[in-house]
Amino acid sequence: MSELTIYDASDDVRRLEQTSTPVLIKRLLSEIGVQYDVWGLRDSVTPETADDDILAAYAPEIARLKAEGGYVTGDILRLKPGTADTAPLRAKFLSEHTHGEDEVRFFTEGAAAFYLRSENTIYRMVLNAGDLLSVPALTRHWFDMGPNPGFTTIRLFNNPEGWVAKYTGDPIAERVPYFEG
Ligand SMILES: [Fe+2]
After folding, report:
1. Cα–ligand 1 centroid distance for 34 (angstroms)
2. DSSP letters spanning 119-178
3. How close is the Cα of 102 to the center of ligand 1, in Å?
4. 157: domain range?
């Protein structure tokens, strides 16, 4: 289930609000400049569908988002369920960081959590297949693929070479519940 949980992390981590209502999630995230949308799933897309065919299946949505956000390229990132030794990969994105460009993800399979920070408020967004999230450049965030990851996601870029994580060094991610799904 896609779900947004908001925490106050100013002292100890305290849960403020939780919702799985898409229209409310959309509104709450838009208040910090983060775009959430439900594109839904295409029957033609299965775990065996080739990358180009996934991109083609969502061509209208991708074209719209490219026009809105100035994205020039898109690709598919897959992590097959049951992949061995994913702990180092999970750890790589599990510390707070920023990017010089937007981080745009649309999940066609699987689930994962994005954590977005605005001052001392943390937005923990569990995404499922059918969900789009666009995190603006310079937003403090981290990503948890969970202990048994498996997902397929469309990524859109302004400039793929510019996608570099800049770690803030703040250990705040350790204080907010991990994604165990
Ligand atoms: Fe990131």
Report:
1. 13
2. TTEEEEEEEETTEEEEEPTT-EEEEE--SS--EEEEEEES-GGG---EE---GGGGGSPP
3. 9
4. 3-175
